[in-house]
């Protein structure tokens, strides 16, 4: 009898349905987004669902998937399917990781911990967001034995960069993912029309307010503004509690934005978190700064991909889900040329536009080793917390498994362009 994660997930849903219980999280991508968007606040919806400019890059991402056609092969007996793979030393039960999504705290309290709990339940690695609502150490505890990576935005302050890397190493991250395409925030009208930047309200900055190097910057800023004395110690204590204030008492924090302590942390963050001058010279220092495998995220041009692999261990082909540059090339359209340029042995991951297991299949066929799932897991979070994250991930992996069986492949290495039309 055929088994696998697809059959297991189907069976669980249909058995519950026999007793009148339907899934709390929709199994199709369109209804998942619609229901999650209704559950979110206007600010959360603008930030999570919205994109750059007029949304052309988001449309391009989905249109790229729609242009490809899978050609199933018959009578191949793919009864037992192996979805497992290893990426830079991290073992994956399926070629899916959860992408870092900043400011998920807009959706629910303790967002990153809940995402981690859902990822662990689905036995799926999670790339912790540098713009998280929980410190990486708390999120790591929620992952248990499931592996996790850490995303890094390159700060304008080099000691903060080093501190973040050290913390990621210390808390057990298996790899470092440096995001390249957000040295500046893209033009995002849905956020701008609401005047809503979560970081300016202290949301999504917990990695910084829990970081000793960043706190030292805040302490120095307040000392410079206020002069030395006892007030400095009070200010430092306030900075240390900023994480819990923003997570547990958002109203209290907002009411105190004009006070020196949290306001200084927010202002320092806005001037620190990402470096517009980031260059290949910065990237070249990573080999001396960490023993972790390093991936560069946001690569779309083949020449950039080749150069990246002179310095790091892997790349993520991504246009940031269409959130940074409008009218950008679709990430899926960029993927084949990148793979051709770097060769078959290089580590190439993919994100931007993944919604279903069939999407994962297409990305693998076009050259990805594994895929990062972004917005959909946040939609699951909005609908059902950690269990919603689990359901979304399990649905995507289930569809990938069933697609493999129906197409006639029993292992990931057999998913090639030969199975696509044209």
SSE topology:
Elements: H1 5-17, H2 29-39, H3 42-49, H4 56-66, E1 85-87, E2 90-92, E3 96-98, H5 111-121, E4 126-128, H6 136-143, E5 148-152, H7 158-170, E6 176-179, H8 189-194, H9 206-209, H10 212-226, H11 230-240, H12 242-248, H13 250-255, H14 260-272, H15 280-283, H16 286-289, E7 294-299, H17 302-308, E8 314-317, H18 331-342, E9 347-350, H19 357-365, E10 370-373, H20 375-407
Parallel strand pairs: 3-10, 4-5, 5-6, 6-7, 7-8, 8-9, 9-10
Antiparallel strand pairs: 1-2
Helix pairs in contact: 1-20, 2-20, 5-6, 5-20, 10-11, 10-14, 11-14, 17-18, 19-20
Sum this structure up briefly.
With 422 residues, the chain is an alpha/beta fold. Helices cover 49% and strands 9% of the residues. The protein has two domains: 5-194 and 275-419, Aldolase class I (TIM Barrel, Alpha-Beta Barrel), CATH 3.20.20; 206-272.
| Named CATH topology of the largest domain | TIM Barrel
- Estimate nothing, just give the exact number of structural domains: 2
Q: Say how many strands there are.
A: 10
Count the helices. How many? 20
Categorize the overall geometry.
globular
Report the radius of gyration as a whole number of Å. Answer: 22 Å
SSE order? HHHHEEEHEHEHEHHHHHHHHHEHEHEHEH
Strand line-up of the largest beta sheet: 3-10-9-8-7-6-5-4
Q: Any guess at the CATH architecture of the largest domain? A: Alpha-Beta Barrel
Mean pLDDT: 92
Largest sheet: 8 strands, parallel
CATH class of the largest domain: Alpha Beta
Beta fraction: 5-15%
Class based on secondary structure composition and strand pairing: alpha/beta
């Amino acid at each position: 009898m055929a088994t696998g994660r697809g059959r297991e997930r189907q069976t669980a849903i249909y058995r519950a349905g026999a007793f009148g219980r339907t899934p709390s999280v929709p199994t199709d991508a369109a209804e998942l987004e619609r229901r999650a968007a209704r559950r979110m606040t206007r600010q959360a919806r603008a930030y999570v669902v919205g994109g750059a400019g007029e949304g052309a890059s988001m449309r391009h991402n989905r249109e790229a998937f729609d242009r490809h056609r899978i050609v199933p092969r018959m009578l191949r007996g793919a009864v037992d399917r192996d979805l497992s793979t290893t990426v830079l030393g991290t073992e994956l039960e399926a070629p899916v990781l959860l992408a870092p999504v900043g400011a998920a705290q807009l959706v629910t309290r303790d967002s990153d911990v809940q995402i981690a709990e859902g990822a662990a339940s689905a036995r799926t690695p999670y790339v912790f967001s540098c713009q998280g609502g929980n410190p990486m150490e708390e999120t790591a505890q929620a992952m248990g034995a499931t592996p996790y990576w850490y995303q890094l935005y390159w700060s304008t302050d080099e000691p903060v960069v080093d501190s973040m890397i050290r913390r990621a190493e210390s808390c057990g991250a298996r790899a470092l993912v440096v995001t390249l395409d957000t040295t500046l925030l893209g033009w995002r009208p849905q956020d701008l029309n609401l005047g809503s930047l979560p970081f300016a309200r202290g949301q999504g900055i917990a990695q910084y307010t829990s970081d000793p190097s960043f706190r030292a910057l805040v302490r120095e800023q307040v000392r410079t503004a206020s002069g030395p004395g006892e007030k400095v110690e009070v200010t430092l204590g306030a900075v240390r509690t900023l994480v819990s204030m923003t997570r547990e008492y958002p109203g209290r924090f907002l009411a105190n934005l004009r006070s020196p302590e949290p306001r200084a942390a927010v202002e320092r963050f806005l001037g620190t978190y990402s470096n517009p001058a980031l260059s290949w010279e910065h990237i070249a220092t990573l080999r001396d700064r960490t023993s972790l495998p390093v991936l560069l995220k946001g690569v779309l041009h083949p020449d950039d991909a080749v150069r990246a692999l002179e310095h790091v261990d892997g790349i993520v082909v991504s246009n940031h889900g269409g959130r940074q540059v409008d009218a950008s090339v679709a990430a899926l359209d960029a993927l084949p040329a990148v793979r051709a340029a770097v060769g078959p042995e290089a580590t190439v991951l993919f994100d931007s536009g993944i919604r279903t297991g069939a999407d994962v299949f297409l990305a693998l066929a076009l050259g990805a080793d594994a895929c990062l799932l972004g917005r959909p897991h946040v939609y699951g979070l909005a609908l059902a917390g950690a269990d919603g994250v689990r359901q979304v991930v399990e649905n995507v992996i289930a569809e990938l498994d069933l697609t493999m069986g129906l197409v006639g492949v029993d292992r990931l290495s057999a998913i090639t362009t030969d199975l696509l039309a044209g």
